[in-house]
Amino acid sequence: MCGIVGYIGSRNAVPVLVDALKRQEYRGYDSAGIAVFTDKSLDVVRKKGKIKELEKLLEGKNLNSHIGIGHTRWATHGMPSDENAHPHRAGGVVVVHNGIIENYLSLKAQLIKKKHVFRSQTDTEVIAHLIDNYIKSGLGFERAFFRAIKDLKGSFAIVVLYEKEPGFIMAARLNSPLVVGSGDSENFLASDIPAILPYTNHITIMNDMEAAKIDSRSIKLSDFKGHTIKRLPSTITWTASMAEKEGFSHFMEKEIFEQPGIIAETLRGRYSLESGEALFEDSRALNNLLANITNICIVACGTSYHAGLVGKYIIEDLAGIPVYVDHASEFRYRNPVVNKETLVIAISQSGETADTLAGIREAKSKGAAVISICNVMDSSIPRESGLTLYTRAGPEIGVASTKAYTAQIVVLTLLAIVLSQKTGATGARERKNFIREFLKLPKIAEKILARSAGIRALARKFYAFKHFLYLGRGISFPVAMEGALKLKEISYIHAEAYSAGEMKHGPIALIDEDMPSFFLCPKGKTYEKTLSNMAEVKARDGRIIALATERDNDIKKVADDIFYIPDVPELLLPVALILPLQLFAYYVAVLRGTDLDQPRNLAKSVTVE
After folding, report:
1. Assigned domain for 607 exists
2. Which tens digit of pLDDT belongs to each residue from 296-322?
3. Which of 61, 202, 226, 370 has the highest CB neighbour number within 10 Å of its CB?
């Protein structure tokens, strides 16, 4: 949520800042603004609404500057408005901020007593006043900045300018992402790497409780006490074009169709057909973490939670190790029973999900081993994990996750193979056969996506309905949950997912001709049972859409509409099943005219609790 950018160099800062903000629109926002130094002053321009509204304001101002900061805000404290939009100013201090300042009310009360006048409802404005207050007490900008951040409690990524010292930018982070980009006589700050990739691929990812002072020629990292930290930038191999639409109508559409390549890339170099083994980059460290494991807990949020539920089925089937899956937001607030024999697997696309980060800290405090599955290198969750297994999905721009989810399932399946090697629950011959089938997934995904016209036709038939049930059994059930979530996220249609076996325990009361049921009914262990559940819906005049295995003729007796997928082994079904569900949600949202790359009220990376 929210997006930060900072620039100092020889270019005109205004177009750089606006462009970088546009590249972070997927994070979710309700207002936008920039602050830039001109020859005469420090100008702040901000506006409620989309970035195009900010651009209209900027058109008539003819601002020319070589240093500035910008922000897209997603409201936490104070409703969306021009006054609550960032940047915030106090005296000559201007601040942009992501996160939440938990003690802002007490700080605000102290500052009001010192005659500071507040103009917004935000917690962020407190930061500007706090720094301004220390400057007025006689400190220089840099010292005042460090004094102020020590007073803050909560989570923050902050970037600050000071009108009387216009030659540099100060920044700091605590539990909220911030990166520094280094160029040729220019430097950058941003919440996310894609924001500044068109300008530089030399990136330094700031750690918690680190500050940065940047000018056009240097970057100085330090801890919150001002002690210098030496760290060389990393070279990011993503290209700027990887974050562009490349001819697709939306980022989400592009990312859905990227999945065959993402599956292949996530598998690359991580298996041996000769031995029937899965191989991760640091096998020694992985084996050390798994040495004494007797049980597994997966913690995640949203789509990553659904991937974790799929992982539970696969790990228990292949490795015979008990797995439970918990919402990270619940895990950290109860007293989870984990210990030195527990492996905690944290799943997060961004690596910055606040609840998941807090969950692994709780697990570590109880002695559990922690492995993370993540898409963003060197983000917070990987840095706090014993080992990270990366998904190699590249930057995911669409707020509704698609390719990252699929890549998470691929990594969980590879990890299940590793665990089965350890437990012996699956023999070498069985593993070899399974890996052979696993390697067919990219081609299977291509085949399913090539049939997208069939899903588009279903969307045209059903997009006007207001309610849906998604039903599946066994390993198909968590896929049904993810399918329902996708429809909710981007089309704003009410959709609920249930285990098909639970339908008769309540949800069957909802069945009528106005509530279609989307059944996941591929061939497998629960096929006949699911077919019986479909018959129950049909007997109550319910409309049925079915995902079924090719050459299944029996399903035609009960389903009104059918989309066929290739025949794949049961443990690989989740990848084959999710693709048509993602497409269905996408095409329905297109027909309903929603802003599906930036759905209302949602943010790509939830970095506050």
Report:
1. no
2. 999 999 999 999 999 999 999 999 999
3. 370
- Residue 221 has φ and ψ, to the nearest 5°, of -95, 145
Residue 327 and residue 266 share a domain: yes
For 230-247, b/e burial (b = at least 16 CB within 10 A) is eeebeebeeeeeebeeee
Residue 194: CATH number of its domain? 3.60.20.10
From CA 46, how far away is CA 54, in angstroms rounded?
6
CA of 336: how far to CAs of 27, 200, 302, 364, 600, in Å? Answer: 31, 43, 20, 12, 33
Query: Model-level pTM greater than 0.85?
Result: no
Residue 105 shares a structural domain with residue 210: yes
Q: Is the pLDDT of residue 607 over 60?
A: no
Strand order in the sheet with 93-101: 88-90, 93-101, 154-162, 169-174, 210-214, 219-223, 228-229
Same domain, yes or no: 405 and 487: no
Lookup result for tokens 């009310």: 105
Which residues, in sequence order, are CB contacts of 114 under 8 Å at separation 6+?
A: 133
Catalytic positions are 2, 604
User: Which of residues 212, 242, 272 is at a domain's end?
Assistant: 242
pLDDT in tens, 335-387: 888 999 999 999 999 888 889 999 999 999 999 999 999 988 778 899 899 99
Nearest to 595 by CA among 79, 249, 301, 258: 249
Q: Are residues 394 and 337 in the same domain?
A: yes
State the sign of the Cα–Cα–Cα–Cα dihedral 416, 418, 419, 424. positive
Residues 6+ apart with CB under 8 A from 448: 565, 566, 576, 579, 580
Whether residue 499 is found in the same domain as residue 576: yes
- Rounded to whole angstroms, the Cα distance separating 512 from 418 reads 46
| Residue 495, strand partner residues | 468
Structural domain of residue 458, as residue ranges?
448-597
CATH at residue 303: 3.40.50.10490
The CA-based angle 81-84-89, given to 5 degrees, is 140
Distance CA 313, CA 409 (A): 11
* Strand partners for 234: 203
Cβ atoms of 14 and 63 within 8 Å: the answer is yes
- What's 139-169 look like in SS3? CCHHHHHHHHHHHCCEEEEEEEEECCCCCCE
Query: What token pair was written down for 534?
Result: 């479909």
| Angstrom distance (rounded) from CA 196 to CA 202 | 10
Closest by Cα among 603, 609, 557 to 3 = 603
For the chain, helix (H) and strand (E) counts, in that order, are 19, 27
Dihedral, CA of residue 35, residue 38, residue 41 and residue 45, to nearest 10: -30
Sorting pLDDT into bands at 50, 70 and 90, what band is 398? confident
Number of domains observed in the structure of the chain: 3
Q: Distance of CA 351 to CAs 108, 167, 225, 588, Å?
A: 32, 33, 26, 30
Are both 148 and 217 inside the same structural domain?
A: yes
Q: Are strands 517-521 and 494-499 parallel, antiparallel or unpaired?
A: unpaired
Of 196, 211, 242, the last residue of a domain is 242
CB 521 within 8 A of CB 537: no
